[in-house]
Prior knowledge:
There is one protein chain. With 383 residues, this protein is of the alpha/beta class. The protein has three domains: 2-249, CATH 3.60.21.10; 254-325; 329-375. Helices cover 29% and strands 25% of the residues. The strands form five sheets. It has a six-stranded mixed beta sheet. Strands 5-6-7-10-12-11 form a six-stranded mixed beta sheet, with no helix packed on it. A three-stranded parallel beta sheet has the order 15-16-18. Strand 5 (120-123) and strand 6 (128-132) form a beta hairpin. Helix 1 (23-43) packs parallel to helix 2. It is elongated, with a radius of gyration of 26 Å.
Amino acid sequence: MVRIIHTSDVHIGAKFLGFGKKAQVQRQALLDVFAKTVDLAISSKAHMLVVAGDLFDSNFPSYQSVHFVKQQFKRLNEAKIYAVLSAGTHDCLSKGSIYKREDFAFDLPYVYVFDGETTAKEFPDIDLTVYAKANVSNKSTESPVAFLASASTSATTKYKIAMAHGSVQIEGKAAKDDLPITLGEIADSGMDYIALGHWHGAQEFSSGKTIAWYSGSPEITYQEGKGGLGQGYVLQVDIAGTVAVKPIKTTAKEVREIRLDMQTLATAENITRELERIADPNLIVVAEISGIVAPETALLIDAEKIEEECRDKFFSIKVNNNIALETGEDNALAYPEELVIGQFVRVMRAKLEEAKSEEEKRILQDALQIGVAELEGKNVLGD
């Protein structure tokens, strides 16, 4: 059996400008969580720590950050645990890459960084081969895993894993130039396990006989949940006859995206009360105020003021105002008839005139307001 700790997308050096006064706290949290991941590798008696890209947020981290990472690799080396690293998109192997300026494996035989020249490294003492095609740019239409199907046939070890930093091709979720990975390529890879990086939420994309997971970011990196289990995990992967993946929580922080519906809440005071109801110092909130309101009500909704009133109740909070104004009868017909929105308004006005009850009229009026707002691009219904 071989045990691997899989992480990626640590983004050491991220600025966190949206976190205001908490930015430095979160920058330190990224260093702390990487040290915590090394602690886990040591305490769990892992054979290897793999970092599947974006250890750094850019190719120009501070001297202190680079020194810190080298010290963590030294700890693994002293424990005789392998550390294997491949470049991502933020720290890609471009001309000015941090991995070309710094030798993270110097005098550390248990550390290996894929340099773009090699795509396979054997570790005979643990009967494992690791494959990776290091990213040389932050965008590419070339798959980082397509080469595995043919490359894996030459392996002489019992176990085979790969690291790949890219996007599994899900309709509407992944761009074609975002280092595309297909489920078919995963299935045909010949790997026991593929350690994925690039998406910040821990989630599984196994296919065929190959187990594949994104570890996600081990700490909160950006103010979106990023799918799956969300951010704040590393993965313990045990490979024997089968592959067992165990997500391990590494942070108490949580990102929560919420909608605040003006149809229900009605006033700014109620919005503030709703936010206070979920107050938590470990919570990072991205809130969207939505709905259709009268102009006089809209003037009373100040997203920045609501943010300020609630800031001390959360680790971080961002409030976006996405309310739409009611379309009054006087201006509803102002839209030109040749436009889709103009045709919609006229059809709905005709239906309103034919309404047989107050309930039907109310439903049609709501439909008119929502339809106009949506056609104006206000997205009042959400995703």
